[in-house]
Amino acid sequence: MSESSVGAELSDVTHEVSVARLRAVLRSHGSLVVALSGGADSAFLAWIATDELGADRVRCVTAVSPSLAGDELADCRALAAEWGLSWSTVETDEMADPLYVLNDADRCYHCKAALSDALGPIADAVDGTIALGVNVDDLGDHRPGQRAAAERGAVFPLVEAGFTKAMVRASSSVFGLRTAHKPAAACLASRVPYGTPVTLGVLTEVERAEAGLRALGFADLRVRHYQDTARIEVPLDRLADVIEARTEVVAVVQAAGYRYVTLDLEGLRSGNLNAALTADQTGTDQAKRNR
């Protein structure tokens, strides 16, 4: 089902019931500190929480660190102005944590731990609860960051209300939010394969490469970092466009610091680096059975 058809479906009774349930969940939590990353989920949560509870009871905070692209920070600032959000930023220091830099399978745990620790004093000051824009679909992927946030008392209102990613986009569209169809943009560290250390230099290369490609018209993409090789992922229907713009694509990616520029013919898959974890686990389980 396309996003437009989902939006049409949720614009009637289904939409009204889902939104009413979400508003009730938000009221049950009282004052909230919403972690606003700028993506469709956190933006929708920030908007509807503010609409339901008021800007005096909802504080929207964007965590600033090298893993947040500059364009995303600018968009959070713009959204706050457009929607009348009570918004501020806070710096997080996950890069100072050797376990985060190590970039093992629990990197997201250490990231969300740092985020929660930074938001904690803000929530305490307003007697509020930290809220993250996690949706039901996120529960099926490897996301240890959710565990770190939950352990520190954060809540996931979209999950409590049963919202999937499609429902978030559909309801956002009904409310006229410009983030309804915004491409997903996970943190820059998600472009780095597990086992490759996350450094400022690596994140800078990824950000510069992706910014250059967006300037060429590729809004929905990932640049996966493999040392001096960049692996570009775009939706399948844009593969031919990348080939057609080959000269410009190579130029902007090499200008970001990469030597080799490759195109993933399987197309864009959010979170696909997690597939390596599944493969490793499968191999480990098979080895155990063969002993």
In brief:
With 291 residues, this protein is of the alpha/beta class. The protein has 13 helices and 7 strands.
Notes on the structure:
The protein has 291 residues and is an alpha/beta fold. It is 51% helix and 12% strand. It has 13 helices and seven strands. The chain has helices at 3-10, 13-29, 40-53, 70-83, 98-102, 107-125, 144-151, 157-160, 165-174, 200-215, 239-244, 246-255, 275-290; strands at 32-35, 58-64, 86-91, 129-131, 222-226, 229-233, 260-263. Strands 3-2-1-4 form a four-stranded parallel beta sheet, sandwiched between helices. Helix 1 (3-10) crosses helix 9 (165-174). The N and C termini lie far apart (46 Å).
Distance between the amino and carboxyl termini = 46 Å
Radius of gyration: 20 Å
What is the average of the pLDDT values?
90
Which structural class should the secondary elements be placed in? alpha/beta
Largest sheet: 4 strands, parallel
Find the count of extended strands (DSSP E, 2+ residues): 7
Strand content: 5-15%
In oligomeric terms, what are we looking at?
single chain
Q: Tally the helices.
A: 13
Q: H/E element string?
A: HHEHEHEHHEHHHHEEHHEH
Shape: globular
Unreliably modeled segments: 1-9, 281-291
- Order of the strands making up the biggest sheet: 3-2-1-4
Q: Helical content, roughly?
A: 40-55%
